[in-house]
Specification:
Layout: E1 6-10, E2 13-20, E3 25-29, H1 36-41, H2 45-49, E4 54-58, H3 77-89, E5 95-100, H4 102-113, E6 118-124, H5 134-137, H6 139-147, H7 155-159, H8 169-176, H9 180-189, H10 197-201, E7 207-212, H11 218-227, E8 231-236, H12 248-263
Parallel strand pairs: 3-4, 3-5, 5-6, 6-7, 7-8
Antiparallel strand pairs: 1-2, 2-4
Helix pairs in contact: 6-9
Length: 265
C-alpha cells in the first residue's frame, strides 16, 4: 500500500508524516537511525494497525525525510514538543503513543510532561532513563563516535569497525543513509530527556512496557515496573532489541493493549 506523505513545520523544522485509518488516534515513534519505512511500513505494521485505528507515523527530526539540524539545542525536549505539535496540527486532543527504542524514550518523557494528552503509552524496547544512569551516560560516547565520521566515510564502518562483525548489507545501507552530524546533535540533545521518579509515580496513564528477554534495557524496564502505577511489563522470551519489533508477540501485545485500553474508556 502506498501512503501519501505530509509535512508540517515544527518550530522551524520540517517534519514528515503519514496518516491512515479511522478510530482512536495512535502515533508511532521509531527508533534511532530508523524512519517511517523500515520501522513501520515495510513489515506491514502500519497497514495492519490502521485497520482499527487512525494511525500516524512520523520521521523524527534528524531522520528520514524530516529536517536534520546540526545543533543539539534543536533536539532533546524539542522532540517532545514535535509530538505535541503534530497532535495540534492534526487536531488530536489526545492520542495513544507507541514508541520503540528512541521513540519509546520520548514517549516515556511524555508520560511526565504531557499526561493529559495521552490515552495510553506503549514503550517498546525502552525503559526508564534517569540522570546519570547507564542509559543516560551512553549518549555522550555515541555522540563522540558520530562526530568522528569524516566526509567519504560510511557511518556503518564506525558502528562496526571490524568487517567480520558487520551485519547484512541491507542493515549497513539503512545506517549509512543517515546524517552523522544530525545524529550526533540528537544524541547530545537527549541528555535533556530524563524522567524523575516523582514524575513516574504520579502516572495515571495506562502504559505497557515490552522488551525482549535479551535486551540490555530490560533492567530499566523492571525498574519502571516497580515505580510506575498503571504500568504493565511484558518480557518476551528468546528475543532481543532487534528481533522484538518484527515479532508476532510484539504485535499481539500491542493490539491487545490498545483494544483493552479503548474498551475501558
Amino acid at each position: 500500500m502506498r501512503h501519501q506523505p505530509h509535512d508540517f513545520d515544527s518550530n522551524g523544522v520540517n517534519l514528515r508524516y503519514i496518516v491512515a485509518g479511522e478510530g482512536e488516534p495512535v502515533i508511532l515513534l521509531h527508533g534511532f537511525i530508523f524512519s517511517i519505512g523500515p520501522a513501520w511500513i515495510d513489515g506491514g505494521f502500519f497497514d495492519e494497525l490502521s485497520r482499527s485505528n487512525r494511525v500516524v507515523a512520523m520521521d523524527l527530526r534528524g531522520h528520514g525525510a524530516s529536517g536534520k539540524p546540526h545543533d543539539a539545542k534543536r533536539y532533546g525536549l524539542e522532540m517532545i514538543n514535535d509530538i505535541l505539535r503534530l497532535m495540534d496540527h492534526l487536531r488530536f486532543d489526545e492520542a495513544h503513543l507507541v514508541g520503540y527504542s528512541l521513540g519509546g524514550t520520548l514517549a516515556c518523557k511524555c508520560l511526565e510532561v504531557a499526561p493529559e494528552r495521552l490515552r495510553s503509552v506503549v514503550l517498546g524496547g525502552a525503559g526508564w532513563i534517569r540522570s546519570g544512569d547507564g542509559a543516560y551516560r551512553s549518549w555522550l560516547p555515541l555522540a563522540e563516535m558520530l562526530e568522528r565520521v569524516r566526509p567519504g566515510e560510511t557511518l556503518s564502518s564506525h558502528f562496526w569497525p571490524n568487517p567480520a562483525t558487520r551485519p547484512p548489507r541491507q542493515i549497513q545501507d539503512l545506517v549509512d543513509g543517515n546524517d552523522p552530524a544530525a545524529l550526533a546533535s540528537l544524541a547530545r540533545g537527549m541528555l535533556q530527556v530524563t524522567v524523575t521518579e516523582n514524575g513516574l509515580k504520579a502516572n495515571r496513564v495506562p502504559a505497557l512496557a515490552i522488551c525482549g528477554e535479551h535486551d540490555p534495557i530490560k533492567s530499566t524496564v523492571h525498574a519502571m515496573g516497580e515505580a510506575v502505577p498503571n504500568l504493565t511489563v511484558r518480557v518476551i522470551p528468546g528475543l532481543d532489541h532487534n528481533t522484538l519489533p518484527g515479532s508476532s508477540e510484539f504485535r499481539e501485545s500491542l493490539h491487545d493493549f490498545l483494544l483493552n485500553t479503548t474498551r475501558s474508556r
